[in-house]
Write a structure and sequence with these properties.
Helix content is 46%, strand content 19%. The chain is an alpha+beta fold and 185 residues long.
C-alpha cells in the first residue's frame, strides 16, 4: 500500500519513483562516528600544529628584530664618531647637543627592541664577546689579557651575540734587561 506523499512546494502528489528514492536514502548507512582515540589523536595533532605555528612566528619575529637592530648599529657608531670629532674640533655646542640627543634616542629605540650594549671597560678579554683589533705591550703581568680600549661597542639580544666588541687588549712583555756593561778589573 502506497501512500501519496504531498510535495509542499507545488502541492502535487509525488510519484512512486520519488517514494523509492526516499526509502533508499533512508536505508543508506550514516558514516561511522569516529571513536574517542581517533578524536584525541586529532586534537593532539591540532595542538601540536598550533604550537609549531606560534613557535615559527616567534622565531621569524625575533629574526626580523635582530636584522633591524644589526642594520641600525652602524648608524649609532657613526653618531658616536661624529660626537667625538665635533668635541675635538670644538664645533658649535648646539649642533653637538643635537647629535647627542639623536644618538640617545636611537640607543633607546635599540634597547626597546631588546638590544643590550656589551660593557668592556677593564674587563678580561673574552673571545665569545670581544674581537681583538690590536694588542699593546704592558709591563704589569696582572694587566695581561685585559681590555685597554674599546674601538667599537659590542651588542647582544638576549643570549645571542649580534656583534662582538672591537677592543685593544693588553699583552704582558717582560721589560728588557738593561744591557750589561762589561766590568774591567
Amino acid at each position: 500500500m502506497t501512500h501519496a506523499v504531498r510535495n509542499f512546494w507545488n502541492d502535487e502528489p509525488t510519484t512512486a519513483e520519488a517514494e523509492v528514492d526516499a526509502r533508499n536514502s533512508e536505508a543508506e548507512p550514516a558514516p561511522p562516528e569516529p571513536d574517542r582515540a581517533t578524536m584525541v589523536h586529532a586534537l593532539r595533532d591540532l595542538e601540536a600544529a598550533k604550537a609549531r605555528v606560534e613557535r615559527d612566528a616567534k622565531r621569524v619575529q625575533d629574526e626580523m628584530r635582530e636584522t633591524l637592530v644589526t642594520k641600525l648599529l652602524p648608524v649609532l657608531d657613526n653618531l658616536d664618531r661624529t660626537i667625538i670629532a665635533a668635541t675635538q674640533a670644538g664645533d658649535a655646542e648646539s649642533v653637538l647637543e643635537g647629535v647627542r640627543l639623536v644618538r640617545s634616542q636611537l640607543e633607546s629605540v635599540l634597547r626597546g627592541y631588546g638590544a643590550q650594549r656589551i660593557e668592556t671597560a677593564s674587563s678580561m678579554f673574552d673571545p665569545k664577546q670581544h674581537e681583538a683589533i690590536s694588542m699593546l705591550p704592558v709591563t704589569d703581568p696582572r694587566a695581561h689579557g685585559t681590555v685597554i680600549d674599546q674601538i667599537e661597542a659590542g651588542w647582544r639580544m638576549g643570549d645571542r651575540l649580534l656583534r662582538p666588541a672591537k677592543v685593544v687588549v693588553a699583552r704582558y712583555q717582560q721589560p728588557a734587561a738593561p744591557p750589561r756593561t762589561p766590568r774591567w778589573y
